[in-house]
Structure formats: structure tokens, C-alpha cells
Design brief:
By secondary structure, the protein is of the alpha/beta class. The chain has 3 helices and 7 strands. The protein has one domain: OB fold (Dihydrolipoamide Acetyltransferase, E2P) (Beta Barrel). The protein is globular, with a radius of gyration of 18 Å.
């Protein structure tokens, strides 16, 4: 009986760990149709963390567009991180024109900034969210 309980516990733990991991997708797949990955944990490898660039430069879009496709005068979605969170300045090499709202804990951003030494670095980023509310970064490590 003890072996059966142990087997059931191990099976449940392995199933829960498999669902907790993000699906690895290419940045091109993600930026082409971000709504396809809405509210799924995904990982994108080799994104660029832009520490040295100024945030919010005039004329630079900082968040995705809202509204119907092709609708004139659509306004950018707000990217207002909650308290103790910050916007992660990330870009993708295949689609540098994509500017999503990626939110990260300030402590994680300070750690990444210290690791980067004030220069742009390649990172592997894991996040969950959708295009209208933003993406919450759960793990962000320098790429190897």
C-alpha cells in the first residue's frame, strides 16, 4: 500500500512539473501571432535585454497597439507596471519592430542589470500573459 501511495505522489508531482514549464517558441512565431500564446507560459531564447537604451524615447512605440486591425487612430495599450515591478526593455532579433509590454520584478531587473554590466545582453525569457494586459516575466537568465 505504501508503494502505491508513493507511486501516485510521484506521478502527480511529475505531471504538475510538466505543466509548470514553459513551451519554447521562436520569437518569430510569438511576434507573428501573440494571441495564439495568450495566458500560456512560454520561453523565448536569445532575446535582447536593452539595458543601455533609454526607455520611452520620443517617437518610439513602447507597447502594442489596441483596436481592430486597420482601424485608424488606435491608441497604444498602457504599460503601467504595478508597485515593485518594472518594464523589461526586451527586443527580438528577428522582429525588432515588436514592442510588447513585458513586466518584471524590480529585484530581478536589478540583478540582470548588475550581470550585464550596463550593456545589452542576450537572455532567455519565460513569461505568461496576453497582448492587452502585458506579459509577466517569471524567469529571465542570460543566454549561453
Amino acid at each position: 500500500m505504501k508503494k502505491v501511495y508513493s507511486f501516485v505522489i510521484v506521478a502527480l508531482l511529475s505531471i504538475s512539473y510538466s505543466f509548470a514549464q514553459g513551451v519554447v517558441v521562436t520569437s518569430m512565431d510569438f511576434t507573428r501571432s501573440p494571441q495564439r500564446f495568450a495566458n500560456q507560459m512560454i520561453t523565448i531564447k536569445k532575446a535582447t535585454l536593452q539595458i543601455s537604451n533609454e526607455q520611452g524615447k520620443p517617437g518610439m512605440p513602447t507597447s502594442p497597439r489596441m483596436g481592430a486591425p486597420g482601424a485608424g487612430g488606435s491608441e497604444p495599450a498602457p504599460c503601467n507596471p504595478p508597485k515593485s515591478f518594472a518594464k523589461l526593455p526586451v527586443s527580438f532579433k528577428e522582429t525588432p519592430s515588436y514592442h510588447g509590454c513585458f513586466i518584471i520584478a524590480e529585484s530581478m531587473l536589478r540583478s540582470l542589470t548588475a550581470q550585464s554590466g550596463g550593456r545589452n545582453i542576450d537572455i532567455d525569457v519565460t513569461f505568461k500573459g496576453d497582448e492587452t494586459r502585458g506579459y509577466v516575466v517569471t524567469m529571465c537568465v542570460p543566454s549561453k
